[in-house]
Design brief:
Largest sheet: 4 strands, antiparallel
Strand content: over 45%
Number of strands: 4
Number of helices: 0
Helix content: under 10%
Oligomer: single chain
Radius of gyration: 12 Å
Distance between the termini: 21 Å
Number of domains: 1
Length: 60
């Protein structure tokens, strides 16, 4: 996952399934294992700009 902020602060707040919060630096890749199933991933910068995506992970 990767998210960018063009504000002065390079902090990005990741929310996975609306519970797990990860604080990361803008533009740096973030690797996180997701179990099979539906997941909601959001990123928020300090300017309150939010992006959200829903993904489905399947096992083969």
């Amino acid at each position: 996952m990767e998210c960018f902020s063009f504000n002065e602060s390079p902090k990005i707040y990741w929310l996975i399934d609306n519970t797990m919060q990860i604080i990361w630096k803008s533009g740096e890749p973030q690797y996180h294992y997701l179990a099979p199933g539906q997941h909601s991933i959001s990123c928020l910068d300090e300017g309150a700009k939010v992006r959200k995506i829903d993904v489905r992970i399947e096992e083969k």
